[in-house]
Amino acid sequence: MDERDLQLLVVLANTKNITKAADKLYLTQSALSKRIAAIERELNISLLLRSRQGVHFTAEGETVLRYAENIRQQFEQMRNSIKHHQGAVTGTLNAGISINYAAYHLPAILAAYRRACPQVNANIKTDYSRHLFLQLLDGSLDVAIIRGDFPWKDKRILLQTEKICVICHPQDKNKPLSEIPYIRRKSDAVFQRELTQWLKEQNISVKPEGICVDNISICVEMVKRGLGWTVVPEIALADFHGEIRPLFFLNGEPLERSTYLMYNETALGLPQVKAFIDVVIKENKHV
User: Apex CA 271: angle with CA 155 and CA 121, to 5°?
Assistant: First the structure.
């Protein structure tokens, strides 16, 4: 087996179709089938099961595929390292950014990163923090910016800590919150648990009917128009000029949300990843 065979197996796994795989590899179907047969003879196993629905890897084939994917990644790391020593940062960056953080800070970070590393292919995924954390765990991401506290055992850098605030329109400034419509926002389980505790401590009852959205910016815009009150982090309040009240629990502790830069130490071996980490740290000095 050689590197071309590794690529062949990965493409087959992605397409699950001999014809499509042959097209992507610029091979004839016959040449592709012969190469698969040669690999099977070399390893003395059956790699694939063919059906009308496409191809499926056998148990032995899945084992070979896992090794093939790992070896290809090592080849890529080797090439990136060589290119780095030749003076140019290249390769692919796989980064995940929390949706809320991305909305307010990602453009500036990417602009700085593109200036520093114009030859890097940057694959940026924005998603909820809990989803990004799982992808960081399974190795799909090289680095992630995640809001909230997750049990990460490798490298983690605190970028910022924000207050969580109640906001309302100036016309509602002196009204009890129970008398104002509450604008709900979808968030992670930890935040919802803390918010529920705060509401209970304040004896605030929230009516089940009302507005529910999944975007912080939309929440803020609705409050600006006097549609109710909501709870959002400071990250969303740069252009808000209504009533802002930081939240505290009865024991005096503030309700806060932290944002972290997370990555595996081994990822620093990829120049494009290290450069991204350096840019994020530098940009967050201005936050």
Answer: 110
Average pLDDT (105-118) is: 92
Could you give the CA distance from residue 210 to residue 208 in angstroms, rounded to a whole number?
7
pLDDT for 287 beyond 50: no
Instruction: Please say whether the beta carbons of 93 and 273 come within 8 A.
Output: yes
Two tokens at 256?
């806060």
Q: Identify the CA nearest to 125 among candidates 104, 154, 153, 145.
A: 145
Phi-psi region of 254 (alpha: psi -120 to 50; beta: other; left: phi over 0): beta
Q: Is 195 helix (H, G, I), strand (E, B) or coil?
A: helix
Local structure of 128: helix, strand or coil: coil
Contact residues for 248 (Cβ-Cβ < 8 A; gap 6+): 254, 255
pTM score, whole prediction: 0.64
Question: What does the angle CA 276 – CA 107 – CA 259 come to, to the nearest 5 degrees?
Answer: 65
CA–CA separation, 129 and 267 (whole Å): 20
Per-residue pLDDT tens for 260-276? 999 999 888 899 999 99
Residue 184, classed as helix, strand or coil, is strand
34 phi and psi angles, rounded to 5 deg: -65, -40
pLDDT exceeds 90 at position 201: yes
Contacts of 237 (CB under 8 A, 6+ apart): 165, 167, 220, 244
Mean per-residue pLDDT for 153-172?
93
